[in-house]
Design brief:
EC 2.1.1.148; Gyrase A, domain 2; alpha+beta; 5-stranded antiparallel sheet; 300 residues; 13 helices; flat; two-stranded antiparallel sheet
């Protein structure tokens, strides 16, 4: 992980000067404030600010739904009820602002979640650092033969070495050309033009602010075992933070989202027939081969 001296100085200063507040404070997330959680080879995630906690979710729910929540006797039970029945607005009462350093190709995946506020480091005004994501050998895989957007088996040591050599050489060459183009003693090209030559594995940074409801949706997709490894490790790091920030909400999220499955009507029919001891096939239920395979994974 690479923090600049200026960033580390900022973290040290902020953590050494706590200020009293009358607003809700989550002790769990306070320990994460400003600290950088390492991700990949040069990346990190750090909490800049937050609002609300488990209690804020319950407070909002009781205002919103009034008598409808009186049968729920405690905050944890209420949160689990809200999560189980797909209520969203109470979870939107909590927000978090993260500082993330990540490769550009991961950022392009991440930004597809359009329910957050983002401010990214601008290569129009500033010069990007000479830092590139180079995967570890165990994460260099062949194309999957069953999933067009996934990875298959790890490449052989010889192939892996070849890939690493290409990645390192191309990254260095692109940055050398970038530096020469923007150098006043070189070409003197505008930074906004020179950046187009940089590879997608160079690191960028942004501030990302999102409410808890939309953050959990992001985590449900990106912390899933099927997500691309390079974004999944960021999601895993954020999961650590959320588990400390709003533990009851995160536990409900684990139980009703991450640890649960969603079945189609055809799947439910097939499951009921199987429980009755009847033989069921993909053809008899009208499922496609892929859906049948997913169904088998769910019940195995």
């Amino acid at each position: 992980m690479s923090l600049t001296p200026e960033q580390q100085a900022e973290i040290d200063e902020l953590r050494s000067s706590p200020t009293p507040t009358l607003r809700v404070v989550s002790d769990g997330i306070e320990k994460h404030l400003y600290k950088a959680i390492p991700v990949l080879d040069h990346g990190f995630v750090r909490v800049i600010d937050y609002m609300g906690d488990d209690a804020a979710i319950c407070q909002a729910a009781r205002v919103s739904y009034g008598k409808g929540t009186k049968s729920v006797q405690n905050d944890e039970g209420l949160i689990r009820y809200l999560m189980r029945h797909w209520h969203s607005t109470p979870f939107e009462m909590c927000e978090i602002k993260l500082h993330v350093k990540l490769p550009v190709f991961v950022a392009r995946q991440w930004i597809r979640h359009r329910t957050a506020n983002v401010n990214e480091y601008s290569a129009r005004y500033s010069i990007l650092d000479r830092e590139f994501y180079i995967p570890a050998p165990e994460h260099i895989n062949a194309q999957s033969v069953v999933n067009n957007q996934g990875r298959g088996e790890v490449l052989s040591p010889e192939q892996t070495a070849q890939v690493l050599e290409v990645l390192k050489a191309d990254s260095a060459r692109c940055y050398d050309n970038y530096q020469n183009m923007i150098d006043e003693d070189g070409i003197g090209l505008a930074r906004e033009l020179a950046r187009m030559n940089l590879p997608a594995n160079i690191y960028t940074q942004w501030y990302w602010k999102v409410d808890l409801h939309n953050l959990l949706h992001f985590l449900r997709l990106r912390a899933d075992a099927h997500a691309q490894y390079e974004i999944r490790v960021y999601a895993d790091a954020i999961c650590q933070v959320v588990a400390d920030w709003a533990p009851a909400a995160y536990k409900a999220f684990e139980d009703y989202r991450m640890g649960a499955v969603t079945m189609s009507a055809q799947m439910m029919v097939a499951l009921r027939l199987m429980l009755k001891g009847e033989e069921v096939t993909a053809e008899s239920t009208g499922m496609s081969a892929r859906e049948w395979r997913e169904f088998q994974d769910m019940i195995s």
